[in-house]
């Protein structure tokens, strides 16, 4: 599936993590559209997404009324990685974010959940193979009325809505010298979601390329790989570039670098 960059670009700035859902089933057309994007957006061999329409709430853990606790959603998407593949984390981030952005386009609420869920329960309902693991899930549904205020109140865990300034994230080519596609790519990347809003990505910018790396901050309590967060930022970079008319390709790199996006052609 080609990246539908103009609708996904709009979704990049609209999307917010929602953890409180209305107890209302998702309508059939929307479920069908979600099933389609899960089946068709498969840019990597090692990562896939599966829609589950009747997921028990016990899949989610977390602090009641606080960070991580998802309530009310009956549908979810499981993000499943083949653990034998060395690129599984960045592949999962990239693939899963496509599914999340398409849900946003469809008017559905989502929240990446990589820490506060039971991988065993999720694996059982999503029917994973022995070499696979559920790396994260997202609830799919409609926000509960008034939930956006509660979501804001949770922001003491990671200041959910704030993003680091560009100057903390980018090295290389100075701001004045950056072509329009790089500005657009970096703006979309900066808005990407990450576990605990840690924004671990760093971008090294050259005239025809952007290298994504993970920062060196150590936090032993975090179970989610920074490479997964960086995979999310990779998709955002590509969406931003395509939006300003530039097509490129990815080369995966060794840790702490993650990948290089190189310009291939004007769209
Ligand atoms: C890989 C990943 C894992 C996440 N895991 C959790 C989680 O376990 N529980 C939770 O409540 N939020 C989780 N989040 C949501 C982040 O806290 C949220 O994306 C971040 O605070 C930015 O807020 P925003 O998504 O509203 O822009 C996760 C996000 C990502 C990208």
Please render the helix and strand layout as text:
Blueprint: H1 5-14, H2 28-40, E1 47-52, E2 75-82, H3 88-105, H4 119-126, E3 132-140, H5 147-153, H6 166-169, E4 170-172, H7 180-190, E5 201-206, E6 209-214, H8 226-243, E7 246-252, E8 257-266
Parallel strand pairs: 4-5
Antiparallel strand pairs: 1-2, 2-3, 5-6, 6-8, 7-8
Helix pairs in contact: 1-3, 1-8, 2-3, 3-8, 7-8
Features of the shown structure:
alpha+beta, binds flavin mononucleotide, 3-stranded antiparallel β-sheet, 8 strands, 267 residues, 5-stranded mixed β-sheet
Q: Tell me the overall shape.
A: globular
Mean pLDDT: 93
Contiguous helical run count: 8
Q: Calculate the terminal CA-CA distance, rounded to whole Å.
A: 16 Å
Major sheet characteristics: 5 strands, mixed
Order of helices and strands: HHEEHHEHHEHEEHEE
Radius of gyration: 18 Å
What is the strand content?
15-25%
Instruction: Give the distinct bound molecules.
Output: flavin mononucleotide
For the biggest β-sheet, the strand order reads 4-5-6-8-7
Helix content: 25-40%
Described by its quaternary structure, the protein is single chain
Poorly predicted spans:
none
Could you please describe the fold and organization of this structure?
The chain has 267 residues and is an alpha+beta fold. It has helices spanning 5-14, 28-40, 88-105, 119-126, 147-153, 166-169, 180-190, 226-243, and strands at 47-52, 75-82, 132-140, 170-172, 201-206, 209-214, 246-252, 257-266. The strands form two sheets. It has a five-stranded mixed beta sheet with strand order 4-5-6-8-7. A hairpin with a 4-residue loop joins strand 7 (246-252) and strand 8 (257-266). Helix 3 crosses helix 8. It is globular, with a radius of gyration of 18 Å. The protein starts with a helix and ends with a strand. Flavin mononucleotide is lined by residues 16-17, 19, 67-68, 111-116, 136, 158, 160, 193-197, 224, 228-229, 232.
């Amino acid at each position: 599936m080609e990246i539908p960059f103009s609708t996904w670009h709009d979704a990049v700035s609209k999307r917010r993590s929602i953890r409180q859902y209305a107890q209302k089933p998702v309508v059939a057309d929307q479920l069908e559209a979600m099933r389609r994007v899960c089946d068709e957006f498969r840019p990597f061999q090692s990562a896939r997404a599966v829609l589950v329409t009747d997921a028990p709430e016990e899949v989610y853990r977390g602090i009641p009324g606080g960070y991580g606790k998802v309530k009310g959603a009956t549908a979810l998407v499981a993000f499943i990685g083949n653990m034998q593949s060395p690129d599984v984390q960045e592949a999962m981030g990239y693939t899963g974010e496509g599914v999340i952005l398409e849900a946003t386009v469809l008017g559905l609420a989502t929240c990446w959940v990589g820490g506060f869920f039971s991988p065993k329960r999720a694996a059982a309902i999503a029917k994973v193979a022995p070499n696979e693991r559920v790396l994260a899930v997202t609830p799919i549904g409609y926000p509960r009325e008034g939930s956006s205020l509660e979501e804001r109140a949770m922001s003491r865990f990671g200041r959910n809505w704030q993003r680091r300034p560009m100057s903390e994230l980018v090295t290389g080519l100075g701001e004045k010298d950056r072509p329009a596609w790089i500005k657009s790519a970096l703006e979309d990347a900066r808005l990407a979601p990450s576990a605990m809003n840690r924004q671990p990505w760093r971008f090294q910018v050259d005239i025809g390329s952007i290298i994504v790396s993970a920062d060196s901050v150590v936090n032993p309590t975090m179970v989610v790989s920074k490479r997964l967060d960086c995979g999310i930022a990779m998709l955002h970079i590509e969406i931003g570039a395509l939006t300003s008319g530039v097509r490129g390709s990815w080369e995966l790199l060794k840790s702490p670098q993650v990948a290089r996006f190189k310009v291939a052609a004007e769209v």
